[in-house]
Amino acid sequence: MRSRTYEITVAGQTGSVVCAEFDNCQVTIGGGTTTLRAELQDPAAFAGLMQRIAALRLEVIHVHRVATSPEP
What we know:
By secondary structure, the chain is α+β, with helices and mostly antiparallel strands. It contains 2 helices and 4 strands; from the N terminus they run βαββαβ.
């Protein structure tokens, strides 16, 4: 199974402690939101990421699967 890239935007600008919880993600902060971008191997990895977000009580405002280029 090919990995898929997701972008998950949460409300607010998270601090460095919260960012450290997502060391496997590219974190972008700005405009009153924080966006996590992660390449995940399978649905279980996606579920795990969403559980970490929920455990930190972050408000998810948008989830987007990034389109990938077709393989040659």
